[in-house]
Design brief:
By secondary structure, the chain is mainly alpha-helical. The chain is built from 26 helices and no strands. It is found in: Membrane.
Length: about 725
């Protein structure tokens, strides 16, 4: 379950804060307007505020201002344009289609432009019902713009006041998702869970975790100018270091399950991971409450149990039983778990004190870690071609809206055509899977909302009570719109129907019409989801190549770090972040493809294995880094670097061949077990077996990447 759906954390989450901010702004703007004008004027001002509020998301202040200002200007222009065209039916229909197409083309600017697209299409549908003169159109647009600017000023003021609080909430969300990630890792020690299914689950969650970590970076690393900001920066950095340690815990789970199936130590390892997840959650919970966090969980019983099991395995080895591999793997896990427990302790400490300066790379350029905001018109022009998924999506929406308007015109009752159009706009998304999910949520949410509204009107029809329910629905709509859209659909149905009931209480068919129009809009959107569709398998070659390209750069940065060639790990962190982002993009495409018709699915198993193998390379590098850190005092630097150089060359060669077109023949070669000194003797060091084992795994998994890449291309051909 999502952390924000738990009552314990819900009221501290930024989702709930967004709902409160949204409702307070809309209600406040409306009530103030009512002091000076009638209800019609107040509703126009309120709609202006609502369109701007759709862009009110956690963002850096400069980005938020740019995004909300764009919404004000664009939505005001659309309001004026549609209002001027409304008296001429043919011109209105033409303009609705053109505006729909143009709004959908804005998707080229990325996911953060989706609310702007929705706001544009929303005000387009709300303006199409008004038949005004030119003078009335300008007055209407002025009132709309007044509401939009008022909410912009309000939202920027609140965001500036709460700028540190929002950072804490977004950071806490990333910590909660990291804890959920560890919960998945814990089940690897439970033989009741299939290892392949667990890997699939882990990779899917990796995509969500990467998204939350990026949101945290964007807010925290852009501006950190005071002691309070330094705390969240320190916690953020500790979280990323902890994440790398967790990656390094990947081991041979099948071997552990084979050799230790009857041992209670497997349950002990599971319990340790579960405790670590709860410990991280406690930090996240304290961060949301603006409190310092202190350790409350003891790992001593489990660590003692592991030590006892290690002693027992050693005793069995002394008796001649072949359990050397199990001993090595369990001992390595013990060491990694110790490092994780220590880092969680540092995570607690990071929240406890203020820092004079931000403990991040001083004077470093944070740009590579942050999402970039670029709105260039040439990006839209570059997608004006039939093979562009965004161009096809825009055509699809424009055609669907045309059909929706035509259907509304021939219905036997006075349909609210904007309800049909709005349903199409909300349901029809760039990908088939998103459309499918949104359609289900929209229909179920609307049905539940209509039933609840009917019960309220029948049994609780008191103006004061209805106003209270309206306020709650207004809070719930933005709270759940990015959390659980189905709940948001319920809330928005209740809100709209109760508002219309208060304005025109005599309409007995209001709820029925709402249901019919929703079903019509959903049917049209579903039909057009197959028109000019862009299936996920079409994007797979590009995404696979991006993963390989970024992984090659990551390996080069990783071995530079392992050999101590850089002054810090800045370049390594950048490439690791880019690799995780590319893997998350490929994983998300795979998940979306699984929601598409079976005949449109390609190479599902090989894509999944390809993602896993690339993920394992990151885990092996993290494990190597942990080993070298642990043995830093006894490390024979020159021979270790020689081994790393040899293995680096081999892994880079493999990945380079994987990037080349055509079939790549690779013969895995192994580095020598213990490098020799100049006199020909083996260099003594206890870490050789660990390093050698991890490098062999790294090389083997790199070779498997080529195997799965070729299988994917064969299936797509």
């Amino acid at each position: 379950m999502h952390y924000a759906l738990n009552l314990r954390t819900f009221f501290y989450s930024h989702y709930f804060y967004l709902g409160l901010r949204f409702a307070a702004g809309l209600v406040g703007v409306t009530l103030i307007t009512l002091q000076f004008a009638d209800m019609a004027v107040a509703m126009t001002v309120c709609i202006g505020a609502l369109c701007t509020a759709l862009m009110d998301m956690p963002s850096p202040l400069r980005h938020k201002f740019n995004e909300m200002s764009a919404s004000v200007l664009l939505c005001s222009a659309v309001t004026l344009l549609i209002s001027l065209c409304a008296p001429y039916h043919w011109l209105l229909m033409t303009m609705l289609v053109l505006v729909s197409f143009a709004a959908c083309m804005m998707v080229v600017y990325g996911r953060k432009s989706m609310p702007l697209q929705l706001a544009t299409l929303f005000i387009m549908t709300m303006s199409m019902e008004h038949d005004m003169t030119v003078r009335e159109s300008f007055i209407h647009t002025g009132l709309f713009t007044l509401g939009a600017v008022a909410y912009l000023a309000y939202a920027m003021g609140i965001s500036w006041i709460l700028r540190h609080r929002i950072k804490q909430q977004v950071l806490a969300e990333a910590l909660f998702e990291l804890a959920a990630y560890i919960d998945i890792k814990a089940d690897f020690y439970d033989a009741r869970h299939n290892l392949t299914e667990q890997f699939n689950k882990l990779i899917r969650h990796q995509s969500l975790l990467a998204d939350r970590q990026q949101a945290s970076r964007d807010l925290i690393l852009r501006a950190h100018n005071n002691a309070r900001d330094a705390i969240v920066v320190q916690v953020h950095v500790c979280m990323l270091d902890l994440y790398e340690l967790i990656l390094s815990t990947h081991t041979d789970y099948a071997l552990l399950r084979t050799h230790l199936a009857d041992s209670p130590v497997m349950q002990t390892l599971h319990d340790l991971a579960y405790k670590a997840a709860r410990d991280i959650e406690s930090v996240a919970y304290d961060v949301t409450r603006k409190k310092s966090s202190y350790p409350e969980i003891s790992y001593d019983p489990e660590m003692a149990a592991i030590e006892a099991e290690l002693a027992a395995i050693q005793q069995r080895i002394d008796q001649g039983k072949p359990q050397h591999e199990a001993l090595a793997v369990l001992r390595a896990q013990r060491n990694k778990i110790r490092a994780i427990i220590k880092m969680i302790g540092e995570l607690h400490q990071a929240s406890q004190k203020a820092y004079d300066t931000t403990p991040f790379w001083v004077d470093a350029d944070m740009g590579p870690f942050l999402s970039q905001q670029k709105y260039e018109f040439r990006m839209i022009l570059s997608h004006l071609r039939l093979d562009s998924p965004i161009f096809r999506f825009s055509l699809r929406v424009a055609m669907a809206i045309s059909v929706g308007l035509a259907v509304a015109a021939i219905l036997p009752y006075a349909a609210h055509s904007y309800w049909i159009v709005l349903t199409i706009v909300i349901i029809l998304k760039p990908s088939f899977s998103m459309t499918k999910q949104r359609r289900s949520d929209r229909i179920i949410g609307t049905i539940i909302g209509c039933v609840i509204t009917a019960l309220i009107i029948k049994f609780l029809n008191y103006p004061a009570l209805i106003l209270c329910i309206l306020v709650l629905a207004t809070v719930a709509t933005p709270t759940f719109i990015y959390l659980r859209y189905r709940y948001a659909a319920i809330a928005v149905s209740i809100m709209i129907l109760l508002q219309m009931h208060l304005i025109a209480p005599g309409n007995q068919d209001l709820i029925t019409e709402r249901l019919i129009d929703t079903f019509i809009g959903a049917a049209v959107a579903t039909a057009f989801s197959f028109v000019l569709a862009n299936w996920e398998y079409q994007s797979l070659p590009r995404l696979v190549r991006e993963v390989l390209d970024v992984n090659l750069r990551y390996m080069q940065a990783s071995f530079d770090l392992l050999q101590g060639k850089g002054k810090d790990d800045f370049a390594y962190r950048i490439e690791r972040k880019r690799l995780m982002d590319s893997l998350a993009a490929l994983s998300s495409a795979l998940v979306r493809m699984l929601d598409e018709p079976a005949r449109k699915q390609r190479a599902v198993e090989d894509i999944n294995l390809f993602i896993v193998q690339n993920y394992l390379l990151v885990a092996h590098v993290a494990a190597l880094r942990a080993i070298l850190r642990r043995h830093v005092k006894e490390l024979p630097a020159e021979p270790v670097n020689a081994m790393l150089t040899e293995s680096h060359d081999q892994v880079v060669e493999v990945l380079t061949r994987a990037l080349a077109p055509g079939k790549a023949e690779i013969e895995p070669v192994m580095v020598q077990m213990a490098p020799m000194s100049q006199d020909g003797n083996a260099v003594p060091w206890s870490g050789w077996p660990l390093v050698q084992r991890r490098i062999r795994l790294l090389q083997a998994d790199a070779v498997k990447i080529i195997v799965h890449r070729e299988a994917i291309l064969r299936d797509l051909a």
